Amino acid sequence: MGFRIGNGCGFWGDNLEAPIELVRDGQLDVLTLEYLAELTMSILALQKQRDPAAGFAADFLDVLQRLAPYLKSQPNLRVVTNAGGMNPSGCAAKARAILDATGLSDARIGIVSGDDLMPNLDAHSLGHLDTGAPLSDIRSRIVSANAYLGAPPIVDALAGGARIVITGRVADASLTLAPAVHEFGWNWDDWNRLAAGTVAGHLIECGAQVTGGLWCHWTDAPDLGNVGYPIVEIDADGGFSVTKSANSGGAVNVETVSEQLLY
């Protein structure tokens, strides 16, 4: 069995039960939770404007509370999430309190930040890609500006012993790629393996989309209301297979995987 990474969340507001179902049987090495979209970032930015302590996906804290018993019974299980949104440090502070209160005070949290460009936005000469109109034309209406970070800082956090890694805006696939790079020691110029890990991450980043939720023949998926969430089993050479949580509905087949790959 390869290195197993399961994604229990494809968007902010997704099924809160999915992460629990993924870790329940103890077969995961890493649980990823993907909360962010461009609209989500602007919503979180507005929340942070109203309350400097907010600006992250609070659903994650509910999930973490429920995950605590499994983190205790599965000491090698790690969690990588972009729930930090516009405020990774604020999210981490709340997560730290939950871990301490549930007997996990030794579980280290890694924070990945630096994606927020707002503090230095005016120092850049940015223009509209199509028209060339200057940023100043719309500057007063901008509430968020974020760069997509990649896998390296997540790898650094894992290498530093973090069991929980909380990021701001990172490329969705990097939530999966980074644990694979860390596990297998892939080099940053090993393009074939990095590409394979990126594809694996893209396939599972949207949660149940790859397990029947995006399938053109969705009516053929058994028990879609109990759809399982995806797992990739990755080998050291970059080969991987896609499956889903045990005893769950939905489907994983050539069509579901192909459609999510195209998406």
Protein model, in words:
With 263 residues, the chain is of the alpha/beta class. Helix content is 34%, strand content 12%. It has 8 helices and 7 strands; from the N terminus they run βαβααβαβαβααββα. It has helices at residues 18-23, 38-50, 59-73, 88-101, 152-159, 174-184, 191-204, 254-262; strands at 3-7, 30-33, 78-81, 109-112, 164-167, 230-234, 240-244. Strands 4-5-3-2-1-6-7 form a 7-stranded mixed beta sheet, with helices on both faces. Helix 3 (59-73) packs across helix 4, helix 5 crosses helix 6 (174-184) and helix 6 crosses helix 7 (191-204). The two termini are 28 Å apart.
Q: Give the mean pLDDT.
A: 95
Report, as a whole number of angstroms, the end-to-end distance: 28 Å
- Find the structural class using helix and strand composition: alpha/beta
Helix content: 25-40%
Q: Could you list the spans in which at least 5 consecutive residues all have pLDDT below 50? A: none
Q: Strand tally, please?
A: 7
How would you characterize the largest beta sheet?
7 strands, mixed
Binned strand content: 5-15%
Number of helices: 8
Radius of gyration: 19 Å
What tags apply to this protein structure?
single chain; alpha/beta; seven-stranded mixed beta sheet; 12% strand; 263 residues
Blueprint (SSEs and pairs):
Elements: E1 3-7, H1 18-23, E2 30-33, H2 38-50, H3 59-73, E3 78-81, H4 88-101, E4 109-112, H5 152-159, E5 164-167, H6 174-184, H7 191-204, E6 230-234, E7 240-244, H8 254-262
Helix pairs in contact: 3-4, 5-6, 6-7
Task: Write a brief caption for the model.
This protein is of the alpha/beta class and 263 residues long.
